[in-house]
Amino acid sequence: MSSVPVKERVKVSQNWRLGRCREGILLKWRCRRVVSGQMPWMQLEDDSLYISQANFILAYQFRPDGASLNRRPLGVFAGHDEDVCHFVLASSHIISAGGDGKIGVHKIHSTFAVKYSAHEQEVNCVDCKGGIIVSGSRDRTAKVWPLASGRLGQCLHTIQTEDRVWSIAISPLLSSFVTGTACCGHFSPLRIWDLNSGKLMTHLGSDFPPGAGVLDVKYESPSTLLSCGYDTYVRYWDLRTSVRKCVMEWEEPHDSTLYCLQTDGNHLLATGSSYYGVVRLWDRRQKACLHAFPLTSTPLSSPVYCLRFTTTHLYAALSYNLHVLDFKNP
Q1: 41 pLDDT exceeds 90?
Q2: Counting CB atoms within 10 angstroms of each CB, which of 70, 118, 137, 181 has the fewest?
Q3: pLDDT tens-digit readout, 75-103
Q4: For residue 169, how many other CB atoms are within 10 A of its CB?
Q5: By its UniProt entry, which InterPro entries does this protein fall under (predicted)?
Q6: 110: burial class by Cβ within 10 Å (0-12, 13-18, 19+)?
């Protein structure tokens, strides 16, 4: 926020610390996603928001206030036969994972789009860095693919994970990647694989109960990452100290599954829960949650499937609409 006056920075900082914000709805889906079972995903880039709706990805431009969108989409990216489960932005491309078992590659500023069969069942997660794509599927495999246009669809490695893969992330060093699995067929839901050979390097943690699947995982640095999932914990791992025990953990106080997490790389951590659209803010120096924002109520209870934040706004995608929490103008 170097371009923002110091007085304004202090004001916004205090609003986050005290939980002062104004809630609004940016988008409403045409159909009740909570009924149809669709799960939106989103990404932010500069002044644009990308969000999946059914089998499309739409790009919207923020208005200057950051708390509203221009109604007409900047772009619509199509190609999947079923819902988009997940997508990432990488190297001016959108890499999408679909319920049709396919991966889509779209150029953001052109009409170029390629879709290829990747897995036997839905592709739950995808990541892309350094010209490499990794994908994870319900079919209990993770795969590595090149992004180069002449080699799209050529699988480099197929990894048998013995479990559904719910989340995946490539290390910033581009030497390995982590998979978050269902913890049903294999004792460890978090495993790290060599990106060049596809071989298992290590697994994280121990004594996970069956079903403690990992729904979201994020690297903060080459040696540190965060994970969350069905067992209601956020865990912070530092590979320099131990791969068997996390450095810190935070428990969701109402025993709700944690669908997603986001961090500013410093002290702020935000999580999305499975009931009543609850977004929680955490100070990583404390055990207890700082603030909770329930965005829905009975009978419209929905998980927070994806959340993102900037220095002034937090965006949360639920089953039937997209919410914004405005910490600049509470």
Answers
A1: yes
A2: 70
A3: 999 989 999 999 999 989 999 999 999 99
A4: 22
A5: SCF_F-box/WD-repeat, WD40/YVTN_repeat-like_dom_sf, WD40_repeat_dom_sf, WD40_rpt
A6: exposed
Domain ranges of the chain: 40-144
For residue 36, the model assigns a pLDDT of 43
How long, in residues, is the chain?
A: 330
Give the model confidence (pLDDT) of 113-127 as tens digits: 999 999 999 999 999
Given a cut of 50, whether residue 32 has pLDDT beyond it is no
Dihedral sign for Cα atoms in the order 71, 72, 73, 79: positive
The reported pLDDT for the residue numbered 63 is 94
* Residue closest to 316 by CA, chosen among 262, 269, 263: 262
DSSP string, 294-330: E---TTS-----EEEE-SSEEEEE-SSEEEEEESS--
pLDDT for 150: 87
DSSP 13: H
Give the Cα-Cα-Cα angle 280, 204, 257 (nearest 5 degrees): 30
Gap between the Cα atoms of 241 and 253, Å rounded: 27
Helix, strand, or coil (residue 7): helix
List the one residue out of 209, 228, 206 whose CA is nearest residue 217: 228
Token pair recorded at residue 222: 């080459």
Q: CA 301 to CA 265: how far, in whole Å?
A: 30
